[in-house]
TrEMBL record, chain A:
InterPro entries: FeoB_Cyto, FeoB_GTPase, G_FEOB_dom, GTP-bd, P-loop_NTPase. This is Ferrous iron transport protein B. It comes from Actinomycetospora cinnamomea. Residues 41-203 form the FeoB-type G domain. One of its GO terms (molecular function) is ferrous iron transmembrane transporter activity.
UniProtKB/TrEMBL annotation, chain B:
InterPro entries: Fe2_transport_prot_B_C, FeoB_GTPase, Gate_dom. Coiled coil: none annotated. This is Ferrous iron transport protein B. Residues 245-294 form the Ferrous iron transport protein B C-terminal domain. GO terms for molecular function: ferrous iron transmembrane transporter activity. Residues 133-224 form the Nucleoside transporter/FeoB GTPase Gate domain. One of its GO terms (cellular component) is plasma membrane. The keyword Methyltransferase does not apply. The chain crosses the membrane at residues 62-85, 123-148, 217-236, 242-263, 302-321, 341-358, 365-388, 400-421, 441-464. PANTHER family: FERROUS IRON TRANSPORT PROTEIN B (PTHR43185). It comes from Actinomycetospora cinnamomea. Keywords: Membrane, Transmembrane, Transmembrane helix.
Amino acid sequence: MATPLPTPGVGPGAGEACASCALAPDAARLARLGLDPGRYSYVVALAGNPNTGKSTVFNALTGLRQHVGNWAGKTVARAEGGFSYGGVGYRIVDLPGTYSLLSTSADEDVARDVLLFGRPDVTVVVVDATRLERNLPLVLQVRQITGRVVVALNLVDEARRHGITVDVRHLTRELGVPVVATAARRGEGLSDLLAAIEQVATADDPPAPLRLTHHDPELERAVSALAQQVAARFPSLPNTRWVALRLLEGDPGIEAAVRDGTLGDLAAPTTDTAAEAAG
Amino acid sequence: MTDLLDEAARLRRDLSDDVGDRIVESLYTDAARLAAESVDRDGAAARLTVDRALDRVLTHRVWGFVAMGVLFFGVFWFTIAGAAVPSDLLYTLLVENGHTWLRDGFTALGAPAVVTGLLVDGVYLATAWVVAVMLPPMAIFFPLFTLLEDFGYLPRVAFNLDRLFARAGAHGKQSLTMMMGYGCNAAGVTATRIIDSRRERLIAVITNNFSICNGRWPTLILMGTIFVGAVVPPALAGFVAAGAVVAVVILGIGVTLAVSWALSRTVLQGESSVYSLELPPYRPPRVLRTLYTSIIDRTLKVLRRAVVMAAPAGAVIWLVSNVDLGDASVAAHLVTALEPIGWLMGLNGIILLAYVVAVPANEIIIPTIVMLTLTLGAPAAGAAPGVMLELGDDAQIGSVLVTTGGWTLLTAVNLMLFTLLHHPCSTTVLTIWHETRSLRWTLVATLLPLALGFVVCASVAGLWRLVS
């Protein structure tokens, strides 16, 4: 296990108490495992728009010091690391920043493939509290795929400075998943984030994927009809409406997954695959 | 399974053509509603005006470029002025004293001359040189550059350059990959993945080498300091040296644009893509943390790579200098063979041989040149490695190159140009191959800069000799 060097302002190595940051209450439960997650039980994917602080959250959780840049598109390849929380191992995958999952660029394909075919146990969507409107489309799209989501409302310190307040309770209610206010640069809210990740990872009965209603009867009819057929073909697939929408759009990636049957594999429980990969 | 696809196709035919747009539209409508309900912007605006005022200057058509020049000039001036003293100290400690102690130690232990030569005069000396020459400027330059980056300045540079790239027929995001190249070209080449069109991506890959990378900054800074800065009175030396480095950087941007333009008009013709570049807010950098990470991660990482490359290179240098083939060493034969081309380019055979030895890492160019100059350039009788022990600081590196190597200001200027314009290091070449999967484009990206370097250096040398 790689024990990271102590970093001013960011916190402790494995198991040490953290004197200077907001992690203190739960610091004893967090062990940063750096690059090597060892044996892990859950896979966490980190998604979000470019330049919202995904890499900062990633570093804070893993203790790695992947360079963080203040610009969009800093993380191109995906980075992976690990941490352990409450004695349970987590593997965490940092995805490239994308504005959507509509598959119009290589980054969006990477992000979508991990979310769809990698089937992470928890997807943390990091959003910029100062630019919520531009960040929410991605959150909604992720929510259409899965209910195992935690929203990290990041950069709340910057939002505060700019006089912007976000109603976290309203967002939580509307999205149906935990929304946690964080300022990852200062370590604020990380213990809440960890607790939310644990809660979603261990939930037996996650919220169903979000049903986005289309204010267009014609489209709504087509989606419902096709979703029924998808459900008939792949009975245990959770996000049939989302798949139906993509098929209506003629999304080549999803069409290929239907053709070669990989879409059916998505129904397999993920913890088994994670355990295999770890063992 | 295909009946499902047929069904989807049938349903799609019944819908109007813009189904995709309508799906996206309803997504954004929902997002906008949810955001409007959840966000309270009371008292916003006040702070944003600071960002806006800064942007008005830093992304101004004219002042944006002035600010860019001043900031980069400042960074290099600090680096050059600040690195002088620690460089001297490290030099005295590692190269002068360390080498003597080690040599005495090996002799006292009764080690054979070949072993002492290979390990102490080869491996150790090359490594010590790399540390002494590179560590101080890197330890100053990287934190400063990272502070600018954390503040949010680099995307503004990209914004300023975007217009120019568009006019050159390249993708605006190429300005971002170019910025990444200033750290490491291999990273810059990987970063071109953010460009979707293959045509524009290839242009970005091929021109990334014109961004001066970590391994090349020290060469430029050293040449600027000991040769260009030395032609003016000492009071101005730092400014002139920094100016020379900035001039090479600007030339690099010019070459990037010119080559992009030429490629997009010839072998890589096509449409330009449209994209949006988001300017992040200015964020006060966390100075201590930046200092820590850029010294630990960046400086030591680059140094480790340099040392790993320098050790075997030191052995190679010692071997080619000490293994004789007929009447002279292997190195002497190679240098004699390369000398005519070197002369034509205003350089010399030793510099070209150094570039062959340093293919794995540009970091070791200067140490390689100095070691080869000392073993080959010295009068045949006194060609002992002990010559080196009488040297001291940067200025004395200069005096070795001038008195023993026969360098002139032309040699230094052309070395600076060749530092900008030559083949990428082997890591970058491998990355280019990996990213393009094309032997043809890998060859183009490798040989095009080298050809440019040859033409530019030979032209400058020709003109220089004509004038003087």
